[in-house]
């Protein structure tokens, strides 16, 4: 799944934007990027409780949508028709 998202340049539909921004910023800091003191970065919204709660409500709705999506999924795919030696046709 990750390969398909990266190859197509798509974002993960069920991702949490605030949490994703925070994790990216943490990685940037660990990689050696300078901390910009006194400026609000992209992960600042994660510090605001009302925005976190709003995102959590959105995640609950997304989980419900995902559950509906998965219930209609057929893990085996369409049935294949065999030909030749497997069906003893000549």
Automatic annotation (TrEMBL):
Domain of life: Bacteria
The protein's name: Uncharacterized protein
Organism whose genome encodes this protein: Bradyrhizobium sacchari
Classification lineage: Bacteria, Pseudomonadati, Pseudomonadota, Alphaproteobacteria, Hyphomicrobiales
